Amino acid sequence: MRRLALTLALCALPLPALAHKVIASVFPSGDAIEGEIGFSNGTMAVGETVTVFGPDGAELGTAVTDADGFFVFTPAQPVAHRFHANLGAGHVADVTMPAEEVAAILGQEPLSPRTPEAAAETPAPGATLSDQQRATLAGIVRDEMRPLRREIAAYREKNDLQSILGGMGYIAGLFGLGFYLAARRKLKEAA
Q1: Rounded to two decimals, what is the model's pTM?
Q2: What residue spans define the domains of the chain?
């Protein structure tokens, strides 16, 4: 009887859920904004339409993810850009690039004004490179950064606080079960 009850109790234990979260990120890439959309289980969003909105909610344009879940959007205005994609089944990607970063992509002055003397003393980064060399260098850096961004996003997803607390709960439960069985055994021996 006890074995049957134990077997039924073990069968009733919850199994780990195979759910996944949407992972979305955007970053500057030369004169454009590059983004990535996928799921925490490593599946990338392929062929998804990404709608770009301004801070006032007006649509600024669209982009489509490629086979690796990446998309590229060229901004025209120095305003915050919100990238939104409905991936179905309740999965929505929503990520924003601040106006300061978009202004830097467009080559506008940073928000903190510099004096003309300081600007003359400090040459702009990459000032000695031609446009073609800058584009080639940006492409190389972008290709090298893609796998790193994926690994960081997967690591963040895998080691979240809920998983850690859940593991600690299992350990505490096993210790409790062990103490309970030991106490029952002592009571039987004492009787």
Answers
A1: 0.52
A2: 22-108+126-159
